[in-house]
Amino acid sequence: MPVRDLTPGTRLDTQRNGVVVCIPLFGAHELFVRCLASVVEHTPADVTVLVADDAGPDPASRAWADELLAATKDSAPEVFWLRQPANLGFVGNVNAAFDACAPADVVVLNSDCEVADGWLEGLRAAALSDSLIATATALTNHGTIVSVPHRNHPTWHVPQELTFDDAAARVRARSPKLRPRIPTAIGHCMYVRRAAIDLVDGLDDAFAPAYGEEVDFSQRCLMHGLQHVVADDVLVLHKGGASLNVDGAKNPIQERHERLLRSRYPYYEKLVAAIEQDSYGPISRSLAAARQALLGRRITIDGRCLTRFATGTQVHTLELIHALWRTQDVRLRVVVPEDLGDYASHTLGLMPGVELLRAVDIDEGRTSRDDVVHRPYQLSSANDLRVLKALGERVVITQQDLIGYRNPSYFGSHREHEAYCNLTRAALAMADLVLFFSEHAASDCLADHLVEPERLSVVHIGTDHRLGSLQPTPAAPRGMPAGDDEPFLLCLGTDFRHKNRLFAIKLLHELRERHGWKGRLVLAGPRVFNGSSAGEEVAWLSTRPALRDAVVELPAVDEAEKAWLFEHAAALVYPSTYEGFGLVPFEAAEHGTACFWAPQASLTEVLPADAAVLVPWDAAASAAAVIGVLRDERASAALVERVATAGRALTWDDAAVKLIDAYDRVVLSPARLAGVTAAENARLEVERDEWELRYWDLRNQVGPTGMALVGPDGHLPETAQRALAGLARRRATRKPLLSALTALHRVGGGTRTPVAEHSQDPESDSASNGATGPS
After folding, report:
1. Strand 571-574 to strand 551-554: parallel, antiparallel, or no bridges (unpaired)?
2. pLDDT at position 627, please?
3. Region 296-458: CATH code
């Protein structure tokens, strides 16, 4: 099929609602070759292509086009060649093409662009998605506000590991098709509706030969109530300015046209800035989807908990990171503390490709933001919210449970509990997605409307610990009676009241008194200052001295000591009344140790309900059930197997798949103004705390004597203060002044020193007014 010539001033045979692909051409033959070849290959045969040759200097372009079309099949689109007798410039050339294509719509495709499969269909669908749309612009590697994968930062190519066709296919498959509104069409590839051309009369000759013409056209459309959209499922490869700047030099008339735009549309630059900075609107979501399609998933994990001590939270965080790393579907960055533990450093070192970011190196506004930042444990301060917003476009927070939110007795004062509750509400309001370990914990959150159901997801954690480096050789805990062969029950956990250690003591009493069991109870876990059951335990044991001798109390144990206790215990007693998941029974099963629990909270969800041995909270009935297991090895083994079987369904690999799905959904999640407000409130709260600290620091530096002189009720008037300050600043007068004041003080026998003030806000309830709650 030969290229057909079109005489200037004549029109193509087109229909209204049809479309013509127009390629303006002037030089840059090598780029035009790739452009036309891609258009012929990927454009439907029933679409006309018009090459608008603006008296170009290189005859090779036409000759090559003839060769290309001669070699194509009948399925290729028909190509027309419109050559101007003299150079009109881009504006005049495109206006001539608009006239030649009437009454059809026109796609203006720069000759330094390449297209891929489905490009025109995507553009047309976006342009026709609403009757008010004037233009639809394709995404590209080099296109200001529609640049991907690096937003607002044009590049010269797509990622090197991808072909352009693969890159375009990925963007098309991943696109949410939101067709976000933008203030202007971008000229590399824009679909222009005929109604818009007829309404505002095409491009303005004031912008001849080029630069700013599409912005002016777009603003005139906006002034008539029309809109411009992004075809966010279309990626076009753009060389970037090569069609007009062959040598790469900046056109000298660009600045003049930019001044003209500012005079006509003084608001335009602010519109563009708003789009560039938008974090929650459709444009942000569409660009994030395209970026993820091209670069892969980029996830930051807040690992600031990975300090010197390895507790359950630290193990869980590392297992989560390792599970995500094993998928090889995520590019991981982990925020680590200055005192990163050796165990964590070693474990992270086993995962090539994981980037470590020191918390002290986070620079708000400069540190790159990943698609998602995930805090896999609860927040401890309002500053955590600010840090998270600095690290990710979308924020995911894991809320393990609400025991601290529900229980004010776990705090030193009402003010501390109120601060914790406020932090919890702010975190859940700001998060784009909130994860829970169990359906029960999620339901507890929904009961108080702390998060909407659509922003909530349940991802069970794995029970199959895969990191051998976190499983140390068992070691007997310090404080464990040496040479004691008596069997013992193990009750593991902090002495918060919901851990129900007193019930474990009562259970031991019933076992010894009613069933003659000659064993002990080992209570292993740290004491807490608020909400402890220690007083109740002591009071109950004080009247039972024989039982008191059978209870062994250990402080917090490390992983090696915990493993030893699991291996040597006759069974584990787990009488907790409130758990967000309940990992301890599965850990016991790994060591072949039976566990006794009650059907409470999430335990009924992750463990077999009919295997719950404890009767809440009847110690006598529970002892009657427990003794049968303690005296029957087969019953004990069967119970262990029941728990192990349930645990085999809860794997870290499965958790990783669900986490990635959750991350994908949150990247495409709708905008949430409530999240913006919560983040801003958190920022203001942090700033308020900083200013308050500065105030008290300065006040303490002034001291009580200084405050008595210059404070609100000070004895020195403002004029005297200024005079003294002036004299003290001058070297010539400072020494005589201070000597005279010291002498007067001595002559007067000294003055009474005011009573020292508090070194903190006197209205605070305690020196520690943090929001850290129970875990």
Report:
1. unpaired
2. 97
3. 3.40.50.2000
Give the per-residue pLDDT at 760.
44
Q: Are 396 and 435 in contact (CB under 8 A)?
A: yes
- CA–CA distance, 299 with 296 (Å, rounded to integer): 10
**Position of tokens 């900083």?**
690
Q: Show the DSSP H helices in 559-598 as ranges.
A: 559-568, 584-590
554 forms beta bridges with 524
> What was the pLDDT predicted at 769?
37
pLDDT tens digits for 288-306?
A: 999 999 999 999 999 999 9
Walk across the sheet containing 370-375 and list its strands: 355-358, 330-336, 297-302, 370-375, 392-398, 433-436, 456-458
Nearest to 614 by CA among 524, 539, 511: 511
Same topology for domains 296-458 and 470-650, yes or no? yes
- Check residue 766 and give its pLDDT: 36
Q: What is the dihedral of CA 330, 336, 340, 341, to 10 degrees?
A: -40
Radius of gyration for the alpha carbons in the chain, expressed in angstroms and rounded: 36
Give Cβ neighbours of residue 421 (< 8 Å, ≥ 6 apart): 405
| 12-292 is a CATH 2.30.40.10 domain | no
Per-residue burial over 501-525, b = 16 or more CB atoms within 10 Å of its CB, e = otherwise: bbbbbbbbbbbbeeeebebbbbbbb
Closest CA to 381 of 340, 422, 338: 422
Report pLDDT for 622.
97
Give the model's pLDDT for residue 668.
85
Give the per-residue SS3 of 34-49: HHHHHHHHHCCCCCEE
Query: Is beta strand 433-436 parallel, antiparallel or unpaired with respect to 355-358?
Result: unpaired
* Amino acid identity, position 2: P
In angstroms, the CA 263 to CA 552 distance is 83
Where do the domains of the chain lie?
12-292, 296-458, 470-650, 675-747
Distance CA 522, CA 710 (A): 60
In the predicted model, residues of the chain with pLDDT beneath 70 are 241-251, 469, 483-484, 671, 673-683, 685-686, 711, 713, 748-775
CATH superfamily of 470-650: Glycogen Phosphorylase B; (3.40.50.2000)
* pLDDT of res. 717: 81
Q: What are 85's two structure tokens?
A: 């007798």
First CA to last CA across the chain, in angstroms?
74
Neighbours of 550 (CB within 10 A): 19
* DSSP tag of 601: T
Read out DSSP for 104-134?
SEEEEE-TTEE--TTHHHHHHHHHTSSTTEE
Q: Is 353 left (phi over 0), alpha (psi -120 to 50) or beta?
A: left
| Predicted pLDDT at 773 | 56
pTM of the predicted protein model: 0.79
Measured from the Cβ of residue 468, the count of other Cβ atoms closer than 10 Å reads: 9
